[in-house]
Every structure is written in structure tokens, then in C-alpha cells.
Amino acid sequence: YIDDPNKVCVRPKIDPRFGGRIVFGEIKNALGGELSYSWSAGHQATGSVGAVGGIHTLNDQATLNELTLDVKYFFLGNIQSAFRLYLLGGGVYTSLKVKNAGKDLGDDLLYDAVFSGFGYRIGGGINFKLTEKILFEAGGVYRWVRINNINTFGKNLNYFEDTNPIGTGVIYNIGLKYLF
């Protein structure tokens, strides 16, 4: 996907990290909708790639950003219940910025890379009402993302691969929600 044999870009593997999340949504009886933005920084990105001019080994930092739109179906209780289970499904846009993922083997210059793409999320969890305004939420989500764009070497590169470990995996969410 890079037209210069001296330029290589590592498809990184990242370690899990904690992050933050902002959620806006509404619940009407058994259905709810949420728009959320989440981020996590300080991931350790690793990997290597070989090319005609040599090998580039990556061991640097990465930042993950996601924008999600989910629909939740609540069961086992009504909107006034203290304890509610839910199933969710939705879409996700993922962007992973990796320091020094690209390398020009001809002159040893390093380039940051941004990997991005769209996908889906499915999962479930629990809500537990601590007060009228504060909820405890815990859940798990399987996320699949097809990375189809890489921005590095000052270019946007179209990149298509059906299976991609960058954006696919299980995410666990635990936290408190304040209700307005």
C-alpha cells in the first residue's frame, strides 16, 4: 500500500490500558441510545516489518480514540428499577495514533502513523442505580473494526484488510454515570 519500497509502516499490536469516556444518551422504557467518545493513551505499541532496505522494529507509544453510537435494550426491570440488565449493538469509528510507526529506510526518518476505520460493537452489561442521579455500570463489548485508512509519510493511504488486530477485541467498561 506504500508506493516506495524504502518506506515501511508497522501494523502495531497494542497493550491494554485504562482510559476515559464521555457518554450522552437517553433511555425510554426498554430502549436507550448513547453517543460516546472514549480515549486511552500510553499504550505500548510493538511490531516489526521488513522491506528491501532493512527491518523497522516498533516499540513506542500509541493513543486510541473511539466514537460510538449504540442502542441498548434493557430487560429484567423497568425504568424505575434499581438493577437492570441490557444488550447493546452499535457502530464505532476508531483512530489509533502511533508514534514512529513509519520509517523511511533510505534516510532513517521516523514518521507517526494514524490508523482509522469503522466497525460494529455488540455486548451487554448491568446498570445499578446508586441514587436517583448516579448509576454504576459494568459491561463487556466485542468490537470489530476494519482499518481502511493509514495516514503516514504525509499521505493518506487506502488500506484494506478483512481481519485486523488493531481494532478488534473485547472491551470491559466499569464506571459511574451521572444522570441529568
Please provide a written account of the structure.
Helix content is 0%, strand content 74%. It has no helices and ten strands. Strands 1, 2, 3, 4, 5, 6, 7, 8, 9 and 10 form a ten-stranded antiparallel sheet that branches. It is elongated, with a radius of gyration of 20 Å. With 180 residues, it is mainly beta. The protein has strands spanning 7-9, 13-14, 20-28, 31-51, 54-75, 83-104, 109-129, 134-152, 155-158, 169-178.
What is this entry, summarized?
With 180 residues, the chain is mostly beta strands.
Salient structural properties:
180 residues, mainly beta, ten-stranded antiparallel sheet, elongated
Distance between the termini: 47 Å
Helix content: under 10%
Structural class: mainly beta
Please state the overall shape, judged from the principal axes of the Cα atoms: elongated
Q: What is the chain-wise order of helices and strands?
A: EEEEEEEEEE
Beta-strand proportion: over 45%
Radius of gyration: 20 Å
**How is the biggest beta sheet arranged?**
10 strands, antiparallel
In total, the number of strands is 10
Mean pLDDT: 84
Uncertain spans, ≥5 residues at pLDDT below 50? none
Give the topology.
Elements: E1 7-9, E2 13-14, E3 20-28, E4 31-51, E5 54-75, E6 83-104, E7 109-129, E8 134-152, E9 155-158, E10 169-178
Antiparallel strand pairs: 1-6, 2-4, 3-4, 4-5, 5-6, 6-7, 7-8, 8-9, 8-10
